[in-house]
Amino acid sequence: MAKAIYSHDLLCMNNMAEEYNYRVDLAYAREDNLLFGERIYKENARLWLYKDLAKVVWLAAKNCYSKHNLRFILYDGLRPVDAQKAMMHTRRAKENPHWMEEPLLLSMPGNGGHPRGMAIDIGLEDENDQLIDMGCPFDFMTENSYPEYNQAHRAYNAHSPTVYQNQNILNDAMSNAAKILKIGITPLAEEWWDFRLDKHFYEQFKPLSEADLPDEIKSMS
């Protein structure tokens, strides 16, 4: 039987942003998000993560800022099953049914680390609030999702050396923090911005719906 995730297992990333030098920009609480162009979360939603992943992000963000003067932008964390369903019913998703075909660009509701608070989407910006070039924007979607055509894929091989250097800064910050804390994380192959706790760990837990959450953690209602 899958384990339950309790509210005390989830930490609000907004609360520690100043201390660890990162910024929260919850993408799906905005109507102008790149992927759907419509709001999925309520406007004042906050970003929550499972405690182990939160610790990795805090240390990684602190070290990245200290070493490179680059700031993490946290775009999404806990994404309840209800939000995953809502995403699949947006106009843009319906116009792109191949997103739900292998290799998947949208997870089926209940799948993956996000509905467990065990995945995080991260970008980088400099001290002037300018986005760092990662090869394509966060939430970039391609017509062809195979690695040789998908600029968001970690195996895409036609970026500039600067882009790979920038991607490595983010990857190294997360992987080094995870090693220090002895917490397993996996970069999602299809998205340079997505990091999650290892699959064998998160699949032990039941995905969360809005009904499972107290009001202060709910993102949609």
What does the model show?
The structure is a single chain. The longest helix is centred in the C-terminal third of the chain and has 21 residues, at 161-181. The protein has a single domain (7-212), classed as Muramoyl-pentapeptide Carboxypeptidase, domain 2 (2-Layer Sandwich), CATH 3.30.1380. It has helices at residues 17-20, 51-68, 81-88, 91-95, 161-181, 199-202; strands at residues 10-12, 22-24, 48-50, 71-76, 119-125, 185-187, 194-197. A hairpin with a 6-residue loop joins β6 and β7. The strands form 2 sheets. Strands 2-4-5-7-6 form a 5-stranded mixed sheet. A two-stranded antiparallel sheet has the order 1-3. With 221 residues, it is α+β, with helices and mostly antiparallel strands. The model has no long low-confidence stretch (mean pLDDT 94). α2 crosses α5. Helices cover 27% and strands 13% of the residues.
Can you give me a brief rundown of this structure?
This protein is 27% helix and 13% strand. With 221 residues, the chain is α+β, with helices and mostly antiparallel strands.
